[in-house]
Amino acid sequence: MTHGSQTPMARPAGQLHGLSAPERRKELVRVVEDQGYCTVAELSALFGVSEMTIRRDVGTLVDDGRLRSFHGGVSTLPQRDFIGSAYTTRAARQGDVKTRLAARALDLVESGSAVAFDAGTTVASLAQQIPDDMRLSVVTASLPVITSLAHKPGVDIAALGGLLHRDSLSFAGSTTVSAASTLHVETCFLAASGLNEKGAFCANDYDAVTKRALIDIADRVVLVADSSKFATSALAKICGWDAIGTIVIDDGLDDERHTALVDHGIEVITVAATQPSQATQTGAIE
Questions:
Q1: Taking every annotated instance into account, which residue ranges of this chain make up the domain HTH deoR-type (predicted)?
Q2: In the 8-state DSSP scheme, what is residue 157?
Q3: Rounded-to-integer distance, Cα 277 and Cα 139, Å
């Protein structure tokens, strides 16, 4: 199967190819600063040079103290800064809101389609709500998603292998990204640890890379996130807003951010953060 054309990393067409070694290293640092964390494979594709060339560049920049190398990639920050909170802790945050967002996102899951579910706790809530009789092909690197869907007879699961990270309960690494690159889905359902004017961010380096790989193979990306993520900082950039087609978010989103998302061409679907009383329950979802 072929994969989609979207890309979560900013790649000015041809502008980063054919650079001299000093120019390439300067731009490499800029790109890594913007993304928070990049793999050698991503940088190789971005600059149009071999992975060996990127490794030499990285080695030089690490020796100069400008970059740090870990998990098969590079960052300007130390590895300890990418340690996110445990899955169970994140799953308990905004639990009711996540359930309501997931219920609305379920309306965007088309029976008979191929979708990708990332490793976020909100997307895991979506997986739990998939009806037992729905026919679906799911690509995922999330252990909770796999567990939730394993007993549903209509769901075929393409579980991406790799190293299991116990904190995030997700598989990650070069094996995971390589497996994803051979697949294609119609919709990727994405979660994020933080949101700001630059796009969506993740708390750890390895999940950010997997999320980018899932975005790359999708025709459409649906971000499912509660509005508190705009007040939360995360270091590893997943993608810019140009990669997002739809966002499902609660009505705590302020007007300024709502307008900014619409200006990016994003379909904004808002959900009531709290369950309305029986007497006033009229059109809670836009």
A1: 21-76
A2: E
A3: 37
DSSP string, 8-26: SS---TTTTSS--HHHHHH
pLDDT tens-digit series, residues 53-82: 999 999 999 898 888 887 778 888 776 655
Report d(CA 182, CA 105) in Å as an integer: 26
Phi, psi angle pair for 164, to nearest 5°: -80, 120
Strands 194-196 and 199-202, how do they pair?
antiparallel
Q: Reduced to 3 states, what is the DSSP secondary structure of residue 97?
A: helix
Domains in the chain and their CATH numbers? 21-82 (1.10.10.10), 87-271 (3.40.50.1360)
**CA torsion angle for 135, 151, 143, 271 (degrees, to 10)?**
60
pLDDT band at residue 36 under the 50/70/90 scheme: confident
pTM over 0.85: no
Q: Rounded to whole angstroms, how far apart are CA atoms 99 and 61?
A: 45
